[in-house]
């Protein structure tokens, strides 16, 4: 059984999908801990699903490197086979990347390398793109530039709003994550 630590900053919609997939007896992975960089709404999923949670508030540390070392200490408690950044809205320090990559994955609401960064959906709309997508990548020291694990295109419709387009991307992002975790756990995906 592949054990995961999932890191979030917000509501945890991708995390919820992963937790629901893991309820199935034939799903070969389970989330052993949920972490956040702030008091995130998604931490409530820990109680709902009986999963331990931890918070490593970025603002509690002198700098990014100190925060990263604290994050490593918390993650290492769980000895995960995979660490998933699912809506963690902060770049992890190089020490975190070095510790876990290629077992450090990130979901992103764009078809990378198009529209990297924190506002992929907004940037796609601003650029007048007719299609964008969802991506799952291995985290490296770049901003959303790591090796692509899986991705899929999503059309942009005339009149799309940022919220509406994001709502159409999210289910694709969730499916890519759930399928790739399964494939990795069952040995069909190597990194």
From TrEMBL:
Amino-acid biosynthesis: is it a keyword of this entry?
no
Organism name: Agromyces seonyuensis
Question: Part of which pathway?
Answer: Purine metabolism; IMP biosynthesis via de novo pathway; N(2)-formyl-N(1)-(5-phospho-D-ribosyl)glycinamide from N(1)-(5-phospho-D-ribosyl)glycinamide (10-formyl THF route): step 1/1
Reactions that this protein is recorded to catalyse = N(1)-(5-phospho-beta-D-ribosyl)glycinamide + (6R)-10-formyltetrahydrofolate = N(2)-formyl-N(1)-(5-phospho-beta-D-ribosyl)glycinamide + (6S)-5,6,7,8-tetrahydrofolate + H(+)
Ordered alphabetically, the record's keywords are: Purine biosynthesis, Transferase
What does UniProt give as the signal peptide span?
none
Q: What is this protein called?
A: Phosphoribosylglycinamide formyltransferase
Q: Key word Transferase present in the record?
A: yes
Q: Where is this site: Raises pKa of active site His?
A: 144
């Amino acid at each position: 059984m592949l054990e995961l630590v999932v890191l979030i900053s917000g509501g945890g919609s991708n995390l919820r999908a992963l937790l629901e997939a893991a309820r199935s007896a034939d799903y070969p992975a389970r989330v052993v801990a949920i972490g956040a960089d702030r008091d995130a709404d998604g931490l409530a999923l820990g109680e709902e699903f009986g999963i331990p949670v931890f918070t490593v508030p970025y603002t509690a540390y002198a700098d990014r490197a100190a925060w990263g070392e604290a994050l490593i200490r918390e993650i290492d408690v769980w000895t995960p086979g995979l660490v998933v950044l699912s809506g963690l809205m902060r770049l992890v320090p190089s020490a975190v990347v070095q510790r876990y990559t290629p077992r450090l994955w990130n979901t992103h609401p764009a078809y990378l390398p198009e529209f990297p960064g924190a506002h992929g959906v907004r940037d796609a709309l601003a650029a007048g793109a007719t299609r964008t997508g969802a991506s799952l990548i291995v985290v490296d020291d770049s901003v959303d530039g790591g090796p692509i694990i899986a991705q899929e295109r999503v059309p942009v419709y005339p009149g799309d709003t940022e919220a509406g387009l994001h709502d159409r991307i999210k289910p694709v992002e969730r499916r890519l994550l759930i399928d790739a975790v399964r494939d990795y756990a069952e040995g069909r995906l190597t990194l």
